[in-house]
Amino acid sequence: MKTRSWILLFVLLMALCAGVLLLRPRPQGQTTVCIYQDGQLLETIDLSQVEAPYTIPLTWKGSTNEITVSPGSIAVTWADCGCQTCVNHGPLQPGGMPIICLPNRLVIKWVQDPVVDAVA
Amino acid sequence: MTKTRRLTVLALLCAVALVMFTIELQLPSLTSVPGIKLGLSNIVTLFTMYTLGPGSALTVLGIRVILGGILTGQVGALAYSLSGGLLAYLVLFLLCRRIPVKQLWVLSVLSAISHNVGQILAAVAISQTPELWWYLPVLVISGIVTGAFTGLAAQFLLFRLEKTHGYLFSKK
Prior knowledge:
The complex is a heterodimer of chains A (120) and B (172). Chain A is built from three helices and seven strands; from the N terminus they run αβββββαββα. Chain A has 120 residues and is of the alpha+beta class. A four-stranded antiparallel sheet of chain A has the order 2-1-7-6. In chain A, β4 (63-70) and β5 form a beta hairpin. The N and C termini of chain A lie far apart (54 Å). Chain B has a single domain (3-24, 39-168), classed as Arp2/3 complex 21 kDa subunit ARPC3. The radius of gyration of chain B is 16 Å and the shape is globular. The chains are: A alpha+beta (120), B mainly alpha (172). At the A-B interface, α1 and α2 of A face α5 and α6 of B.
């Protein structure tokens, strides 16, 4: 295959991926988040009910993540993992990707609002 | 190349890969998406594949992943690195005879995409979070960009060394 064909193929693949990202469903209005560690649900928090900021220190196999919960917002604000990806992720965005700390197997993600579930 | 010389070159390549891996970890993250990085140490893996052969490339990759994880305190991330690394190596191994050195960057891109797919597979399986598949398009795009960069770097290195140290090549 010629170099020009490879370049075209990769450009098309990038365009396809960009399209998938743009068309990704982004459910809005969710207020409930779940915190999982090593596949286990640790906590479910309705961010609309949070009145004052607080932190949750989570320790797993000697490694620690510190989660800060504020009214309408949740973020990993400190971690002792080497990559710091979870800290750099910043607050969980509405309809956004989960916050994940792969070394400490921590996942924070939006879940369907239980009230909406009950109505449905 | 004599056995001793080969062993010495291989040990040097492992050391270079480890140093590049460690230095890259000190650089700030390019994005907040897990798994996106330049992968500078892959230059060494590509170089080894085309100079010393697939067995040596696997050795460099294995030593870099395991020792890199231990030395940088990221033993917890070994599963992700290994799954990505092994899938990337498999693609390298299967395609290195079909893709010439002058298109090494193509092989590097395919390998980088496979690496990211392997990592996301491990991440979804371990964290049991299917939502992580949405990171795949980002990781494919980053794999194309970073793979082209490291591939071109390895390609230039090979052509440069061919002029001065042509004996390093086991094949072209």
